[in-house]
Please model this.
Amino acid sequence: MSRLKEQSLSTCRDPMALPAGGGSALADGDARDFWELRLYVAGKTPRGGVALANLKRACEVHLRGRYSITIVDLLADPRRASADQIVALPTLVRRLPVPIKKIIGDLSNLERVLVGLELKSRPVQG
Amino acid sequence: MTKTRTAAAPDSSASVQPGKAPTGIAGLDELTSGGLPRGRPTLVCGGAGCGKTVLGLEILVRGATQYGEPGAIFTFEESSDELAANVASFGFDLPGLIAQKKLIVDHVLIEPSEFEEAGDYNLDGLFIRLAHAIDAVGAKRVLLDTIEVLFAGLGNKDILRSELRRLFRWLKDKGVTAVVTAERGERSLTRNGLEEYVSDCVILLDLRVEDQISTRRMRVVKYRGARHGSDEYPFLIGDYGFSVLPLSSLELVHEASTERISSGNRELDQMLGGGYHRGSSILVAGGSGTGKTSVAALFAATCSRERPALFFSFEESPAQLIRNMNSIGLNLAGMEKKKILRIISTRPSGFGLERHLFRIYQSIEEFEPATVILDPVTDFGAVGNKSAIRAMMTRLVDHLKTKGITALLTSAQGTLAADGSHADSDAGVSSLIDTWIVLQSFEVAGERNRAISVRKSRGTAHSNQIREFVITDGGLMLVGVYRDAAGFVTGSAREAQQRHDAANGGGVANNGARVPNNGARAPKTSSRRPGAA
Model:
């Protein structure tokens, strides 16, 4: 973690360097100390399993010890789909820190996961 | 279900057609021979502000209220409250229907900025929401308004397309009648090619502004396996929601009555071989000051003695009309008081053609007249081009015929030119018209005299004469045919001839016409045919 802290935003030029520690944490102050994550799935699907595995791996690398993952099975509780505005599955929702962020897909694109969770800044286009 | 339907929608066709989900919208069910394809999706496309959402909502609301078919509304743009507010003005109580579990609304909120896409996904979340909503109320109808928002929200178009394909297949499997709205594309029906997935029935809505007057039009572009009207039909979003104005059947199936009704003038009745046919359409054409309104008002007054008559005046206010007709001995005010006659005055330029047509229809529904007068139809030239007026008149005349209502239209055109040819087309209605009466005013020897003739009258032995007529305090009077050696004489020349004949004890002229005052039909011998002076 200390290595990550040393890097400034602008030094992250090579996204391909991820996930070997090339990402930069934007902040790790009090408000962002704990990450509450929810993963919405529909029953036990291979894609849901892949998403969970990918998420766990990313969290262990970038958020060790300060995250929680709740799995919401919409087949068991379909009302949650509209209450939480879920359209695509799987959907990862960052409840904390605010603002709420949504990442859809099986989370196989780690770069995008980290950008979506704001663990890494969006790469400059072009 | 059938029971509810017949009770609630007396206007639609007698029974629910197999495989059809009636919309309950006036005109649309006629246009689609019974409604939307049941259990299949229908695509409604059109530009912004065309009324896609209103149409979709109305189909769902009427399904729930009139046909006992609960509905699930998926709104991708407006919130439930916004939707409710938008249709409250049409008398649709969305919150009430939701409370009664006849409708369920789910607002699918998609904000592009909110999503990050990281890998493969599908739209199972949406499927689960749909399934849940459908199960919650037992929905038979589903509205997706506007599912295209997904295209803006989701980046992976390949996934989206295959998921939409799966969605519409799933809706079909569920057996729900779905209405899917979509934005009109520039070169295709919809911006995102939804017609590729929803191809059972496609309805196109259009809002056009021509000559500063906006008209809404609807066309059924496609209806797989069903007969449908393929023309463009004007529609309205009025006080009671949506209404499409074909209302005319695709076939000519009018009843043809042989019953005659009086024009109000005995001589004119004789010229017509016994009066007009009940339920027929009559055109009274003539230039200004030829007495069109008088002929029309006389007929209205005569008819109203038996059954109510409705007089649409596009030039005069009711008070003006009453005063003017009083001067020829017609007490329209008294008839209005007895509620056997109603005069409705509107300015043609007040609003667009289809709104006029709609108001005429509405008044007819309310008052249930046996006779309708439109005076004059040519005034609509101010609010529409010729083809639009012709289309409107076709629909109106057809509608009136279907209802068995006798219609008398006056027209400032459609008279005869000096050479006997058409002076102008007559708002395009002549082919629809059963009886065509021409009024003329012509100048002869320092006088302006009026003449009346029957240019055509289907199914009657009618006179081929041109008769002089005078408008007096007591009403219309057709004068006997007087000829001198040169031909037909009118006005003071005729009076002189009359005096001359009287002095000579019945001269050549009067008999020369062979058919006197009360002659029903003159022989069609050209040499005997009286010509206009």
